[in-house]
Amino acid sequence: MTTVAMIVAMLPLLTATGPGAASRYAIGLVIASGLGIGTLFTLFIVPGFYLLLVKNRQSQAADL
Known about the structure:
Layout: H1 2-9, H2 11-14, H3 21-63
Helix pairs in contact: 1-3
């Protein structure tokens, strides 16, 4: 929920117009994409990698 709130808070920066809009867009894009990628990595990639390690360790333990 915190990540979603922060990404939604970056929407005004992404839709900014007027003076300084390019720099606001760049900052908003970096923050929003970084949070999104980090969250997806934490929720899906890390647990999947952990499952692969556990299976590998279980197969090694069974061989002993």
